[in-house]
From TrEMBL:
Organism of provenance: Sporosarcina quadrami
SUPFAM superfamilies: ISP domain (SSF50022)
A Pfam family hit: Rieske
Lineage top rank: taxon: Bacteria
Keyword Disulfide bond in annotation: yes
Domain Rieske residues, every copy: 82-157
Keywords carried by this UniProt record: 2Fe-2S, Disulfide bond, Iron, Iron-sulfur, Membrane, Metal-binding, Transmembrane, Transmembrane helix
Protein name as annotated: Ubiquinol-cytochrome c reductase iron-sulfur subunit
Spans traversing the lipid bilayer: 12-31
Length: 166
């Protein structure tokens, strides 16, 4: 039995090797691009600085706007504006998401007829100050809560978590 490689076999192996390399060099970047968002870490532990001084917070919720820089949404990076309703309960700082749990409209603090409540103008959804949805109105769950921390006297806002107050 001869272990010699024929000229035809040599050419075939060489072409398969070179062809395989060229295909993988072409396909791998495409595969990497396609799954890139899956491979990214979400940075969920990040806190966003705001211009709100913690010492100026009271028991009345105030609207605090903040910007998330370079938020990655799949392949796109952009600055995203967000809002929280923030107040103090004793020493605890509470930040609630303004996103209504009915269909996602933005809730407001108090209206002419809804004292000491959050009110959603879209379908008259109502929430207590701690974010608890008021039975008999459209929302079926409480407002989410933001994680918060104080850095050098300023409020920093983190990710949303299910409401821990109700
Ligand atoms: S979206 Fe808020 S009550 Fe419907």
């Amino acid at each position: 039995m001869s272990s010699k490689v024929s000229r035809r076999q040599f050419l075939s192996y060489t072409l398969m090797g070179v062809g395989g390399f060229m295909v993988s060099a072409t396909v791998m970047p495409m595969v990497r691009f396609a799954v890139d968002p899956v491979l990214q870490t979400k940075g969920e532990g990040e806190f966003i600085p705001t211009s709100q001084k913690v010492a100026e917070l009271t028991e009345t919720p105030v609207r605090v706007d903040f910007t998330i820089k370079d938020r990655k949404d799949a392949w796109y990076k952009s600055d995203v504006s967000d809002t929280a309703w923030v107040y103090k309960e004793g020493d605890q700082v509470i930040a609630l998401s303004p996103v209504c749990k009915h269909l996602g409209c933005t809730v407001n603090w108090e209206g002419d007829e809804h004292k000491n409540e959050f009110f959603c103008p879209c379908h008259a959804g109502r929430y207590e100050k701690n974010g608890k949805n008021i039975p008999g109105t459209p929302p079926l769950g409480p407002l989410d809560e933001y994680m918060v921390e104080e850095v050098d006297g300023y409020l920093h806002i983190g990710k949303t978590v299910p409401n821990t107050l109700v």
